[in-house]
């Protein structure tokens, strides 16, 4: 993936992006990340005539273009829940919670998950849903201070803390750091939403029930967990921290680039990442802890 900012005026930024298939894309993007023009001579203008891989190349380009403009120009062009800097801030905030605070924020989520594996009644907001179907529980977080107002960016600052041990997983490195050493990388959870529920029947039908308890603003991160038995892990808090690290991994993979080395670990990240990794040959099954991964570079898959 290669990108060049070709121009900027009072309304938009222009870019030329070479995708992992060596095709050029011309993009015009507004400062909020809205893409007003996107064209490539290599692919059909009609989405119905593009293959799954060709469509994904285009999506990778759009995601990477937003990330590049955000990092190079400072505009908030990346959708909040997809921004690795915001996800890194959320990871730090969750990791630093006391056990009491963690229970207050995420105890209901753990209970909803556990209901699938004990004798509790699983209450789903869909009359046609089976608890054994794919059920994803989602919970939004807002943080303070604003994670995108840092220079250098949050992820870069965190990476610099263990630069000499960059081949260690991020979670292991985090365990070795003292939070007193994190300086300005000190984030608080301002609020959490209620629990949203996504149901996929495995036949291509998907439905989502949003909680009435919303944040009232764009979230900085979204927890999204496929129903699993939380008693199977030693610490649900550590599991959520790992989950956010896997989300960071997914966001780089979906941009068509290798994740930073400490985030090249396997496990459940984003639901979007799972869908792409499961059904598009550009990716391996990074979501699965049991899959054999041959490459962390989407360009070579």
Automatic annotation (TrEMBL):
Origin: domain of life: Archaea
InterPro entries, A to Z: DUF7958
The protein's name in its UniProt record: Uncharacterized protein
């Amino acid at each position: 993936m290669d990108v060049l900012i070709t121009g900027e005026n009072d309304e938009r930024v222009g870019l030329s992006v070479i995708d992992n298939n060596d095709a050029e894309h011309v993009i015009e993007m507004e400062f909020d990340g809205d893409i007003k023009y996107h064209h490539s001579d290599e692919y059909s203008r009609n989405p119905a005539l593009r293959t799954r891989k060709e469509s994904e190349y285009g999506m990778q380009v759009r995601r990477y273009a937003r990330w590049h403009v955000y990092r190079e120009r400072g505009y908030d062009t990346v959708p909040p829940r997809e921004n690795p800097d915001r996800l890194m801030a959320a990871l730090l905030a969750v990791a630093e919670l006391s056990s009491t605070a963690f229970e207050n924020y995420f105890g209901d989520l753990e209970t909803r998950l556990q209901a699938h594996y004990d004798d509790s009644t699983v209450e789903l907001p869909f009359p046609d849903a089976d608890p054994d179907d794919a059920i994803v529980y989602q919970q939004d977080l807002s943080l303070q201070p604003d994670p995108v107002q840092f220079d250098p960016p949050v992820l870069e600052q965190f990476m610099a803390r263990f630069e000499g041990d960059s081949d260690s997983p991020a979670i292991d490195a985090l365990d070795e750091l003292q939070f007193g050493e994190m300086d300005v990388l000190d984030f608080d959870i301002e609020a959490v939403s209620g629990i949203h529920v996504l149901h996929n029947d495995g036949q291509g039908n998907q439905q989502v029930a949003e909680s009435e308890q919303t944040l009232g603003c764009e979230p900085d991160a979204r927890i999204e967990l496929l129903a699993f038995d939380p008693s199977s892990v030693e610490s649900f808090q550590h599991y959520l921290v790992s989950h956010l690290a896997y989300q960071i991994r997914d966001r780089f993979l979906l941009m068509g680039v290798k994740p930073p080395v400490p985030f090249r670990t396997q496990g459940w990240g984003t639901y979007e990442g799972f869908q792409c990794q499961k059904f598009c040959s550009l990716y391996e099954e990074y979501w699965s802890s049991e899959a054999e991964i041959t490459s962390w570079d989407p360009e070579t898959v």
